[in-house]
Each structure stands twice: as structure tokens, then as C-alpha cells.
Design brief:
The complex is a heterotrimer of chains A (634), B (407) and C (300). Chain A is α/β, with parallel strands linked by helices. Chain A contains 24 helices and twelve strands. Chain A is elongated. With 407 residues, chain B is α/β, with parallel strands linked by helices. Chain B has an eight-stranded mixed β-sheet with strand order 7-6-8-9-10-13-14-15, with helices on both faces. In chain B, α4 links the parallel β3 and β4. The termini of chain B are far apart. Chain C is mainly alpha-helical and 300 residues long. Chain C is 75% helix and 4% strand. The chains are: A alpha/beta (634), B alpha/beta (407), C mainly alpha (300).
Amino acid sequence: MKTMSLARSRQHIADTWPTSVPAILALAVAGVALLNAYGSDYVTTVAIGVATYAVLGLGLNVVMGYTGLLDMGYAAFFAIGAYTSAICGVHLGLDFFLSIPIAIAVTGLAGVIIGYPTLRLRPDYLAIVTIGFGELVRTVANNWDYVGASRGLYPLPIPELFGFEFHSPIRQALLAFVLLAVAVVVVNRLGRSHIGRAWRAIRDDDFVTESVGLPTLRLKIGAYVAGGAVGALAGAIFAARSVAIDPTNFELMLSVQLIMVVVLGGLGSTVGVLGASLVFVALPEILRSIQDYRLLVFSIAVIVLIELRPRGLVPERTTIPPAAALAATPPPRTVVPAATAPPAAAGTAVATPPRATGLRPDPADGPAGTPLLQVRAVSKRFAGLVALDSVDLTVAAGQVIGIIGPNGAGKSTLVNAITGVHRCTSGEVVLGGRNITRLAPHRIARLGVSRSFQSTRLIDQMTVLDNVTVAAYATSGLGLRDALFAPGRVRRRDFVSSARAWHQLDQVGLADAAARQASELSYADRRRVEFARAMIMEPRLLILDEPAAGMNPAEKAELTRLLRAVAASGVAVLLIEHDMPLVTAAADEVVVLDQGRVLATGTPEQVLALPEVIEAYLGHRTDDEESTDDDPVR
Amino acid sequence: MFNGLRSTGAGLGRRVVVATAALPLLALAACQGAEAGNDGDGVIKIGILAPTSGSQSADGEGMVRASRLVIDKVNADGGIDGRRIELVVADDACEAQAGTQAAQKLITDKVVAVVGGFCSSATLPAIELFHRNQDLPFVVAVSSNPKVTDAGYPGITRYIGRDDQEAPVAAKYLLEQLKSSKLAIMNDNTEFSRSVAKNVEQRVKEAGTAAIVYNDSIQPGQNDYRAALERVRTTGADTLLYTGFYPEFGILAKQWKSLNLPYQLVGGASSIDLSVIKASPQASQDPRFSIVTYPTASLLNNPKATAFREAYRKQYNADPAQYDVFQHDATEGLVAALREDPDSLGAEALNKRLRALSFEGITGQISFDDRGDRKAFPFLAVRANADGTFIPVFQFAPDGGWAPAGQ
Amino acid sequence: METLAQVLIIGFTVGSFYALVALGYTMVYGIVRLINFAHGDLVMVASFIGWVMLQQAWIRDMPALPGIIVAAGVSIVGTALLSLTLLRFLYARLIGRSTLGFLLVTLSVAFALEEIVKLVFGAREQSYPNYALATETITVAGVTFAGMDLVVIGLAGVLMAGMIWFAQRTMTGAAMRALAIDHDAARLMGINVNVLIAAAFVIGAALAAVTGVLSGVYYGRISFDMGFALGLKAFTAAVVGGIGNIGGAVLGGLVIGVLEAVVQGYLAGAWSDAFIFGALILVLYIRPQGILGERVAVRA
């Protein structure tokens, strides 16, 4: 299968990404033509209502479905969009189509102002703040004379494009469906891009996502704002088809109903949102008698759905390119040196042009042996408990440093202090001459520090391949503009990222498992995926927290070889491990931690001979898993 | 070896495309079912536009009941020239979008006329649609917004007074009967309530005999408005007019009484409901308490009103809601117009007959000016009596102004 | 001055109602770290249970106070059972597994409860009997207040004190505090997590029931949609005061209540909700952990 032609794989990629603008636009127009031919004005009016709801649902889906943020004030974006568009028309005399970008910009600004303080906090705070935001917007609209206060704004000018007036229901339906098509394209492109993958990763585990170098706060704000922008689009549609808008159009109930639409449609599913909008708007039109029970029926449906599938709330569609295509793709930029790589991958690896960063030592780091990481007098206290007490540590490029110590010695806390998860109480952490003490975890990760977790943390709902690919986010060279306007570029670059991830998995012998859900893997395999994920970030410093736990002797030997090879390529390795033979075999130097202090430093042989180490370490060692957390937040 | 890696995602994009295209189609198919045939089969279809869901659903349900009472009787008595009347209820949910859809539904269902209209926010877009649809007759029962008739469409006749009718009448009452010189006005932050408050303020300023010392909103749905009542006291007001709805007015009355506030308390036309008496019998019997109101269900003691209440109780085992009398009269008026010439139910002819009606309804003498508003619309000022009902204390005649009731 | 005193008393009364609901929020949130959107609607259900009881002839024959106490007792039991049932069959399997799922289910339960009550009792407001004790007022130095104001404020104070005592001085309370800090550690220490979660839900429901009946007796009006907004404001109060903190819940309730009264009494009632939610957003900017709260663990 390695001979699979490149043409074939390109063909496959094209199949996976048919989000073609002309096709969707044409179908929207065709739908309107059918409405024109067979639908009464009443049906057309209902169809516009469905389209408006669908656009709102798509926008909320970005926030809630993709990124897992509960926005209970989504109607606020709808309101700001509608009001901005209406103000442009009524007060400023601007053309309707010019008002759309303005509405989107204003909504985006509001999204940043609300999102920035809130999204840093616990996720459920967003729910309560967004309710408040929704009510705030409505109260302002209800009392602000410029926007007509409770009277609302009217009459709204009829949108016009090159003399074509959108005054009848069918013409408004044309406008609504074209804008719906635009929303479908935008939302799908975002969802399928590297950004969409990052959002899903955040939804499932934002701690891990941050630690593999993704700017989660910015991504969350991005999702909140992008969802808001789509809501603004719906607002503009609403303003275009309404004679008047007033504050009663944007009440809390609307936000709640939209949440139900998105949940019942299946979080993250575009088709589901379209279908659920149809059911929600059109069904009560057919069965008037259910109108009164609509809210009850939908509430119960949501409850039943979630109760039946609490985990499967998100219907994850596994879409990864076929392995053959990945394997045949021009080789990844980095691989573990050929000496340790399985022969299968070696053939492709030799073609790799060397890169200035990544596994190759960064020239700025100086020759091997120069200190890369310096931990200087770092202390960390938790509410009276001293976890780290003035710890010093130096790791040079190409070196493997083992850290050992009894349970509660502060090993994991040290990792968390270096990687920015914990703020140091005092002291500083310097990486390659740069002070990283106060940097956010994702920034530290992007400077070349990657880690694995003591209790493995993968994004269980994702495929194994995506678990690794997501860590290539920072190095993919893609931005938001690419996601929106250059799907081809996203497709190609993303494919390269996937191929790199596949090759990393191949290195750890898990290429066969690439398409499986991470949750299906065994403990040892999960560790391997973590290793692959750490390696795709092209680290200068690799921190492994008990990587050998659960491995058999053969696997441990393989791990030792891998570690030596990684170090030989110029990477500094910090190895936290209980397994003494492994540490002795792999580490150049060992640091012993006890009760938050450095007890001893030296070669493994030297250190293990020291009586105080034997006393401290072996004296009260237990076989229990260390119970300190590598995740400070539950 | 790689069989397990086959992508399952290739079809996703296509599904999206198909769904996008199918959406209007499905909407089409879905709604086709809602379209009924025309009024062949000898049935005459009448539409009811009322908020049977949403915040005003209790009032909307009442309206449907009131109409059904009338129509059941007509059908039992042999219908209109032997043709049965069928009611088509469209829920406007008291909001613009649902109102638009409900109106479209009635048009599509080919009703000969529509009776109803409670919330102006839903009624106004419906009026536009009916107008564009050859001025489908719309007998407006309860929407009191001036814009309902100000557009001057020939299809509109309205059975309730106008907001701008209430405001001058209320202002006159406050100034002339209650001799207010320092007036406070409170609204519930809804458009209806605010517009009445604004119009009263304007009238009072024009009259020039009283100062407006307070004009603010309260948030509906809260339980404690004592801080606002206290603030009114500090302004030195001698009278407080509340222009919002009855649930909050009941609480205001109760708390006004318990704080023993020194000013008079007056409720506007939306404040009348028996629940106000229930909330505080002491307050509602206080001589400084009154409500300026349309003649609504519980206030009318003419034989027609009594008969209506009894029939309503018998059929539904409940008292009519306050505005049901207007829906009742509106339905009777429509039936009368249908009866006049059952062979000519086209919009134009029917509209002419609806405008020309002149009859004695539950709510008094009914006839219309050239906008479709009632020529003479009576108002009352009421207070509770000891047996828990409202009794008129003053009455307003369009030509004679306010006078003590019963004269 | 008198006006200020008057407005403050009103604010304290309204705030005490928020505080009672906020205490329930804080109990549950402190343990499961999740917002129970249906909590406000428990107050509504409790009000209706109390109302139904007070319509019963045998209770109507009783003097006012014992009648209210019996109705409140039934309401507490009924609301607690409802809360336990919801916990057992709907919430339990989501706690710790799906935050979004829990939030969405409680949100849906809130609306389902409202719609069911609306179906059973109708959309219109219902009135509690008119109790003399609810309208009797006292005037001291020009400040008029109802005896009920003192009852409400006093009750909030007593229940707060009781809960602080419970949390600090009882084993269950200590276990709950341990649970709030670390679920796994608490489990290792032999604490039966499920029982404690159930206890928190029951206490929260009981407080909601007290609030519901008290509010019905005092203000007289109840309706199917009274709970959600109350729940939101109470949650806002808990957040402002510092969620998870018993004193914070009461302080937050009083802050929100006084703010509401001051806006109505001095500023512009039209903007009262804007003030409250504006204050919430402001607090989250300046002091995300709330007034009395400990630092909110910021997600890494």
C-alpha cells in the first residue's frame, strides 16, 4: 500500500471536502425557486422563519456544539445584529448589504468584551454571564430612545440590490436562503479546519489542549465571537424581512429555544441544526394543537436525549484520511533518527530536509551541554502547604535528567511549575535564556516544552490520529483567514499535519490504531500516543511524567532506546520515573526530590549510593500511585 | 491492514448540501398539510388571531372561548343561512414573527374574516398582511394601539378603545375628579404601558394644572415594589397612576396600603382584574383607590353581560377573562355582518357591512367612525366593594365628561 | 434618612429571599461544581404545593400560623422528594461526567416543571390567602415596615447561621467541605459522596421550599414563571458573594436586594435588571472569586 499513488489520495481529499460555495448557493436558490413555484406566501413566510432559526442555530452550534460553551444569551447577538442593521438603515441611511459587515463587526466587538473576562473562568460562569448579557442588551434596547426604546425601530427600509427590491415574501426568502447558504459554508469551513479540530479538543479537554500549545482562551473567544457573527447575520436577515423590530423579539426564551434546537439537532451537526429548525418552526404550524406543548415536548426531548446518551451527546464523525495516503505523503518534517525508527518508515524519513528548529537543536540554545532549562530557587505553596521549596535544576540540550523522589515529594508540582500550569510562589524558570515563569502554558509549550501526563490524558472522543494532529496546530502555519477563504490551503496543510502525526504514531508502533477512538486504547498505548503527541510539537525540552507505568520490560527497553535517541538529536529530556532500572539506564543525571526540596544531584550511581537518598526514597516508598494531581482543576 | 482506516466522512459534505437544498422543500411539504381547502362544502371559515401560547396565553384562550360560545350558538341555531361556521384558530403568541405566520396561515386557509387581536406587537404585522391580501376583514377585539386604525385600511373595525383615548380620559379623571396637582406616573416597561404613560404626561402638561413629579418604570415579575412606592412618596405626589398590567398592580396596591402611603392610587385600563381585589381587599376598597377602565367583563351588569357570564361559566366552568367581552361583541358583530347578506361574503362587501354595523353589545352601543374606531367609547372608574367585586364610582361619557356613576 | 432606612429595609427583605435561594445554590454548587438551573423552579413548585395545601379545608379551618407551618412542612417534604427524584433519575449519572449535559438537563427540567405547572394550574397568577400577619406594619421613627420583613430577614440570618454551624461543626458538614475541595480525596477518606450530594440537594430543596411558601404568604402572588428569574438572581447573588461560601451567598443576596431597591428608590426602575447583571459582569472583571470567595481556580 505504500505505492498508492498520490493522485488517488488527492482524489480522496477532494471527496472529503465538498463544501463548494457554488453548489450550496445553487441549491439554496433552487429551493427558493421551488417555493416560488409551489409554495403560498404563508409557506414562504414559514420557510423564512425556518431559515432565520437555522442561521441562529448554526451560529450557536459553533459556540456550543463545536466548542462546548453554554451560551444562554445568544439572542443578544441576534439583537445586536438586527439593531445594528436597522440603525444603519433608519438613522444612517446606509445600504442594507453594507450594514451586514457593520453588524458583524459590532457584534464581534461585543463578543470580545463579554467573552474575554468570562471565558477565563469556570465554564459554567459563561452560562450565567451570557444570560445577564442577553438581559442587559434587551434592557438597553427597551430604554434607549435612539433605537426607539420599547416602541422599536420602524419602518425598516426594504433591502435593495442593484434595483432589485426584496419586498415580497419570496424575494425575502431568496435573501434569507442565500445568507443561510453563506452561514452553512462559513460554519462548515471553520468546523472542518484546524480551528474546528482545536475547538473540539477544547470541548473535550481544554486543559490538555492548552498544554499541547493551543491558545485555548483565544480559541474560545474566537468561537464565541464567530458564533456571534453568525448570529448577527441572522439578525440582519430578520431586520430585512421585518417591517419593525422591537425588544420583545429578543427575549431569553429565544436563547433557550435555540439551545434546544442545537441539542436536538446533535451538537456540532449542521444537518441536525437545519432539521431541528425545520421541526421547531414548521411543526407547530402543522399541528397547532402542539403549540401549547411545544416547550414541554422539546424540554422532555432534550432530557431524554441527554440521559440516553450522556457521553454521546456529541456525534463524532471520524474523518481521517486513509493510512495509505498518509504513509505515501512526502515525509514529515521530523522523525526520530533513522537508527531507532522502524524500517518501514525509514525509507521516507531519509528524504526529510533538516529543519532549523524542532528535534534539531536550536542554534540559540548553544552547543549540546549548554543549559537549556534553568529552574532557579522555585517555590510553590498551596494554602499553607509547601509543595516546592527553593528548587534548583538545570537541564542541558541533549541531556536526560531523571527526577526521582517519594510520593508527595513535589515531582508533578515541579512539572506543573515549569510548564506554567502552576504559578510559582517565588523563583524563576528560564528556557534558553528567556524567563518563562509567568507565561501561559500554551506559550511555554510553543517555546518547545512538551510534556506527558502522569495519569495519561488524551482527548477520548477524538481519534488517535487527531489526538496527535491537534498538537501540530501551532506549527501548521494556518490562520483564521485560511480557514474561511482558503479551504484548499487548509486541506493541504492539514493533510500534511495528519501525515506528520501518522508518522509519529508509526514511530511508536501505533499507526494501525490511528483511526480508533482514543478511549479504546490500552493504558500503555495511551502513553505511546502521549509520546507521539509530545514529539510532534518538535520539542526542545521533553518532560515525561512516569512514562513507563504499565509497560512490560520489553516496552521499557524500547522506551529507553527511544529516549536516548531523542536526546541524541539534541533534545533535553526531563524524566520523572519510579522505575529505577529505567532511570539508571536512560538518565545522564538524577535529581532526588524530597518534601519539596532537592536532596541530591548526580549520576544515577552516585545518587543511589547516598544513604540519605536510600532513607528518604526507599525508606517510605509505597507502591501506591502518587496521588498528587497533574491537573489542578477538576 | 488499513481497512480499518477507511474514512467515514466522505458523505458529510454531501449531506449538508442535500439538507440545505431540502430545507425549503421540506418546509413546503410540511406546510402544505396545513393548507385546507376553500370554503366550499357550505362551511364559512372565520379566523381567530389570538395569543394562545406565550405570556398572554390565558387571555388568548379566553378570547377563543368567547368566540366559540357565540359560534356554537349560531351553529346550533342553524348557522348562517344553513351554512355552518368553522373557527380557525391561529396563535400569534403575542409576538411579531408568530403574528406574521399566524396571519399568513389564516390567509392561506381562506377564511372570510378574522376576529381577534390582543397584543399590538402581533396585531400590527398581521394588519399589514391582511391589507395586502385584498383587505381581508379584520375585526379587532382587544388591540388598543392607535396604529391599528391609523393606517386607515378599510378592513379594520375595532371594538375596544384606543390607547390615546384612554390617556386623555385618564388625565381628565386625575385632574378633574381626583384634583391632582402633583402627579406620579409609573409604567411596567412594556411598549403599551409606556405609551399610555407618555400620552397622559403630555395631556397633563397641556392642561397645565398639575406637575409631573415622577415618571419611571418598574420591572414586571418582581414581588416587591415598595422602594419605588417609597420614592413616589418622597416626590410629594398626591396621586400615582400605574399604566401597566394587573399582576403587578395587585402587588402595588397591597404594598401601597401596607406602607400607608399618603397619595391616591389609580390603575389604568390594563390594571383591572379580580385578582387585584384578591391581592388586597383592604387596598381596593380604600376610597383613595380607583381604576380607570374600559367596561370589561366583571364590571358590566346589563342583562347581556350577565347572560354572557352565565353561559360562559356553564360551558367552561370558569369566569370570563376581562377582555372576553370585546371578543364576544366582535364575534357577534361579525356574525351580524355575515347574516345581513350570506351570499356576498367577499372582502369588499363584508368590510362595508362591518363598518356600517350599529348594535347594542355587551360593552354598550357599538358603531364606527370612518377609521373603524368606535364612535362613542365609554370609560369607568371603579373600586372594589365589600363583596369582592368592582363597582363603578365614576363614569365617562364621550360627550359629557366624567360624572359620578349612576347618574 | 428615613427614606434611606426604608429603602434599606426593603432591600434587605428582598435580598433575604435571594439569599435563601442562593444558600441552596451554594450548597449544591460547592459539592458538584455545577449550576442547577432548575433550582429557581423548585421555589415555584414549592409555592404551588404550599398553595394547594392552603386550599384544603382542614388547613383553612386552622388558625393562620399553624396552617402556614403545616403547608410549609408538606411543601418542604414534597420539594425535597422532587429534588431527590430528579437527582436520582436525571442528574446523578451526569454529575462528574458531562458538565454541558448537566447544565442542559437542569435547564430543560426548569422549563418542563414550568410547563407542567402551567398545564395543571393554568397560566394565570394564583393568590395565596390574604393573611393579616402579612400586611401588619410597624412604624418606628418614621420608617414603616411589615412584621414579615423582620421574619424574612431573621429567618435568612438564622438559616445562614445554622448552615455555617452545620458546615463547621458537624461531621456531615466537614465531609461536605472535604468533598468541595477534592472529590477523589474525599472518596479515599471513606466519605460516601453520593449520600452527601443527596444531602446537599435536600437541604437546597428545603431552603427553596421555605422561600417559596414564605414568598407566597408575604407577597400573595405566585405563578408558573416566577422561578426562573428568581433562580437567576439568586445565582447571581451567590456568584457575587463568592460561590461555595455560605456567608457569601447571604451577603450576595443582600447586595443584590439592596441594589435593586436602591435603583428603584433612587435611580431608574427601568434599568434595574441592567444594574444587576452589569454588577455581575463588573464583579467578574474585578474579583472573579466574588466578595467572600476564595480564588476561583482558573482553568490552565
